[in-house]
Design a protein that fits this description.
85 residues; mainly alpha; 2 helices
């Protein structure tokens, strides 16, 4: 009798443990997909910024705003939201 009970309990326990493992893996997949979306957006922003840095006018404006680079006799007044974050 005990052998028959064990025959049914062990597979049921294994099934429940597998189901719990599956649920945790699904949660992990969702978290990783969200992280991938964020990283893709960040990568796209960095690519756009790199593309802008190929433009000499943008590089000049960027250097003036970020590093307060100026020509002799020129005053620099920083403007908010000019630089990418």
């Amino acid at each position: 009798m005990i052998f028959i009970i064990l025959l049914f309990i062990l597979p049921a326990y294994n099934l429940v443990a597998s189901y719990m493992n599956l649920q945790s893996k699904k949660e992990q997949i969702v978290k990783l997909q969200n992280q991938q979306k964020k990283l893709d957006a960040k990568t796209d922003a960095e690519k756009k910024f790199a593309q802008r840095l190929k433009d000499d006018n943008y590089v000049e404006k960027y250097a003036r705003a970020k590093y307060y680079y100026s020509i002799d006799g020129e005053n620099i007044y920083p403007a908010p939201n000019l630089l990418p974050k």
